[in-house]
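wait is this the right file?? whatever heres the structure
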């Protein structure tokens, strides 16, 4: 049996650990949403995603 963490001798220790999650969400402005989509995708694909989100009413405008 090897000395790797996945060896048979290491099974006595717990293998799973709980992850801490942060449930605090900040609402994005429309400009921040568009900026993040363009950063994540290319120019052509991002334009389609933003258009689709607007047409499908997935974006909700609050206050102003």
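ok assuming it is, sequence goes like this
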């Amino acid at each position: 049996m090897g000395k790797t963490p996945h060896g048979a001798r290491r099974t006595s220790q717990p293998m799973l650990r709980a992850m801490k999650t942060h449930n605090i969400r900040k609402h994005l402005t429309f400009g921040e949403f568009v900026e993040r989509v363009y950063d994540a995708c290319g120019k052509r694909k991002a334009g389609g995603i933003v258009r689709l989100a607007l047409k499908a009413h997935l974006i909700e405008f609050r206050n102003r």
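Residues 50 and 56 are 10 Å apart (CA to CA). so i think its the right one actually
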